[in-house]
Design goal:
The structure holds 2 protein chains of 2 kinds.
Chain A: E1 2-6, E2 9-15, H1 21-46, H2 49-65, H3 67-70, H4 76-93, H5 123-131, H6 135-145, H7 151-158, H8 162-182
Antiparallel strand pairs in A: 1-2
Helix pairs in contact in A: 1-2, 1-4, 2-4, 5-8, 6-7, 6-8, 7-8
Chain B: H1 2-13, H2 21-59, E1 92-93, E2 99-101, E3 119-121, E4 129-130, E5 139-140, E6 143-144, E7 158-166, E8 174-182, H3 188-197, E9 208-210, E10 223-227, E11 235-243, E12 246-252, H4 257-278, E13 287-289, E14 323-325, H5 332-335, E15 363-373, E16 377-387, H6 391-400, E17 412-414, E18 424-431, E19 434-443, E20 446-453, H7 457-477
Antiparallel strand pairs in B: 1-2, 2-13, 3-7, 4-7, 5-6, 7-8, 8-12, 9-10, 10-11, 11-12, 14-15, 15-16, 16-20, 17-18, 18-19, 19-20
The chains are: A mainly alpha, B alpha+beta.
């Protein structure tokens, strides 16, 4: 493997010996373009910076480590997106040994007093409501509203039917509205 | 009203804080390099193992144990003698999704007044379950494990676990846990060494550091501190020991690292002592495992299961303008040819509803069709085909609406001429865009589900029945796999 630094940049680019410069340049350019998008998706799903960095690192590293194969596909970013979704759903399933209810969650709920005029809710409450969504509902909502993907593409990414995607989003939005109101806690602000 | 709320959801989702991009990129490259290294190492290890196996066979000499057990008992441990390996018979998977397991794990986690102070153990364990059936239970020292033919070796054959809550607390929060896992004979030592290097099938996916456990072999990872953002104290303390080809681990959390590690070590030591006292490892007896009502029909060895593409050409429906929508150009179908989808059975608007997390199929695939109707409306059809551990049970539950997943809109069953009512189902259902028709065909353990929309009910019925019948023909053309499942191994 050969590595080289870049002028005016702390980053280091490494390419496998035998890989053409074109391939290395392609990977470098792809990573520049894909990183914000994949990190953004990961954050939208996890609503947690550390988890988002972990998810995006995993997805991007997988693509980078298999670049010679993946770059032959039409859309490496779609591959990375699929990994983010799969990893997110998979991690959410690892519940019984890994998930522990934080004491912070056991906080007194105070009913919202503000009128939810126009359906607009407090941002912090909406974030909390997003975090409380079941993983597949959260994923469906994120792929539609963050990625602006058509329902058919969301269905393909999640491995379910279009109808299921739509019902998931329908339930998710209803839950978000209801929980945003409930989660308007004392001390939770945007 | 909807628009403003949905816009707000969009804004929140797109409002990620800026990370340190240079650090993120460096971490990506580090992790990528690690993945390459592991793949290269795996190839070397596989090659070495194959060569060693050939050498052992040709010379007729049994391979000596790779590890001397005298290092496996820590100072102050409750036991001083542990076996190097365990004579497990290989696990066998049956066509119905059940298993003959090498052994059923006994109840070994300390409970009652034997439990560490302040902790109360769950009454029962999770039950010995085959690894790979539920990824959430497939762990080693809390590190998630991959499973399947494409994952590194060795892999666990099964696990059992117990959880602990704080005494006097009623919030249901789990504060500690014990897991016991079985490995193929002579392989647990490798698994422990891999854990030490964070390579192999089970790897930490969060920051961690190794902590020495006096008296145990330094080449095996026995004790760790794992950053865990989901727990109140932010860290998980894990201890693990190997007993032959069984690993016993425990985790806990707390603000005092030394106390938490001591608790984890004590849970492991006591569990190991109970395991050895039970004598089950001296002569492990195979045990049967079957999926029971009310529990998930897991996806045994799902990564090894391949469903072929049986979606027919749109032409067979004989409906002008109907075309198959190619979503595979975006990646998933072509990049993930193996159906390893963590989905519940998906059937139109019924199953897959996250409110009703239902049974899990072994594998599933999906294809879409669309037909333009008028200026803007698109009539959509989907075919989903799943292989279940018990297809008839899945089919009957769906038809009777008695599964864990239920119809959101009740279908109206219709006669389907020339088709067996026991294995096929035809029904009309109100759809979002008008008439909608459902056609199900059970072929062996593979359930083919078509949900078709049409301008008329007759048109929707035509599309559903013809696509379902043609998909069944396509499935039959693939024959059956070694375990009797249609389409397996193709």
């Amino acid at each position: 493997m050969q590595c080289s630094g870049r002028l005016n940049d702390s980053r280091v680019t490494c390419v496998w010996v035998g890989m053409t410069n074109t391939a290395g340049a392609d990977l470098d350019g792809w990573l520049d373009a894909a990183m914000p998008r994949i990190y953004g998706l990961a954050y939208a799903l996890a609503q947690d910076r550390h988890q988002a960095e972990d998810l995006s690192q995993e997805a991007l590293a997988t693509v980078v480590s298999k670049w010679r194969t993946v770059s032959r596909a039409d859309n490496p970013t779609a591959y990375a997106r699929q990994i983010v979704v799969n990893t997110f759903l998979s991690q959410k399933r690892k519940r019984w040994t890994r998930e522990v209810v934080s004491d912070a969650v056991v906080t007194e709920l105070v009913p919202a007093t503000d009128d939810l005029a126009g359906g607009v809710v407090e941002r912090g409450a909406l974030v909390e409501a997003l975090r409380s969504l079941p993983p597949r509902q959260c994923t469906a909502v994120t792929l539609r509203y963050f990625e602006d993907l058509p329902d058919a593409d969301v269905a393909a990414l999640m491995g379910c039917s279009v109808s299921t995607v739509r019902s998931s989003i329908h339930h998710a939005l209803a839950a978000l509205r209801a929980r945003s109101a409930s989660f308007e806690l004392t001390g939770v602000t945007s | 009203m909807n628009t403003s709320f949905e816009d707000q959801v969009r804004d929140v989702l797109r409002d990620a804080p800026e990370p340190d991009w240079a650090a993120l990129r460096a971490a990506v490259e580090d992790r990528a390099e690690g993945k390459r290294r592991v793949r290269m190492l795996r190839g070397s290890v596989a090659g070495f193992a194959a060569a060693a196996a050939v050498a052992a066979i040709t010379t007729g000499v049994a391979m000596a144990p790779l590890f001397e057990g005298d290092g496996a008992a820590p100072a102050g441990s409750t036991t001083s003698t542990v076996p190097d390996s365990t004579p497990f018979v290989p696990r066998v998977k049956h066509a119905n999704g059940g298993y003959t397991m090498p052994m059923a794990f006994p109840d070994i986690a300390p409970k009652g007044d034997k439990a560490p102070a302040g902790l109360v153990r769950s009454t029962k364990g999770m039950g010995t379950q085959p690894a790979g059936a539920d990824p959430g239970r497939n762990t080693m020292a809390s590190a998630p494990c991959q499973y399947g033919s494409s994952a590194p070796q060795p892999q666990q054959w099964g696990t059992e676990g117990w959880t602990y809550q704080r005494a006097g607390r009623t919030d249901g929060a789990v504060r500690a846990g014990v897991t016991v896992a079985g490995w193929p004979t002579t392989t647990a030592i490798t698994a422990m060494q891999q854990l030490d290097q964070n390579s192999g099938a089970c790897t930490f996916d969060q920051h961690f550091r190794k902590v020495a456990w006096s008296g145990l072999s330094a080449s095996e990872g026995n004790q760790f501190v794992v950053d865990e953002s989901r727990i109140a104290e932010g860290k998980r303390y894990v201890a693990i020991r190997r007993v032959g080809d069984v690993t016993v681990d425990a985790w806990t959390s707390g603000s005092d690292e030394q106390a938490a590690l001591a608790t984890a070590r004590r849970l492991v030591d006591d569990s190991v002592a109970n395991l050895l006292a039970s004598k089950v490892l001296d002569d492990p007896q195979p045990a049967e495992f079957a999926w029971t009502d009310g529990t998930s029909e897991g996806g045994p060895d799902k990564a090894q299961f391949i469903l072929p593409d049986i979606a027919p050409s749109a032409d067979v429906a004989g409906v002008k303008g109907l075309t198959r929508v190619d979503v595979s150009s975006d990646g998933p179908e072509s990049i993930f040819p193996r159906s390893d989808l963590y989905t519940v059975p998906v059937l139109g608007a019924q199953v897959g509803d996250p409110v009703h997390p239902g049974s899990e199929s072994v594998a599933g695939r999906v294809a879409f069709y669309a037909r333009q109707s008028g200026a803007n409306a698109s009539l959509e059809t989907s075919i989903v085909w799943h292989s279940f551990p018990d297809g008839k049970k899945a089919f009957d539950e769906i038809i009777a609406n008695k599964g864990t997943a239920r119809w959101l809109t009740a279908p109206t069953r219709e006669a389907w001429s020339g088709h067996d009512e026991g294995t096929t189902f035809l029904a009309g259902q109100p759809g979002e865009n008008g008439p909608q028709q459902i056609a199900l065909r059970l072929e062996g353990n593979v359930l083919i589900s078509v949900v078709a929309q049409g301008e008329t009910q007759v048109q929707a019925r035509t599309i559903a029945t013809k696509l379902a019948d043609e998909a069944a023909k396509n499935l039959a053309s693939f024959g059956r796999g070694p375990d009797g499942r249609p389409g397996n191994g193709k």
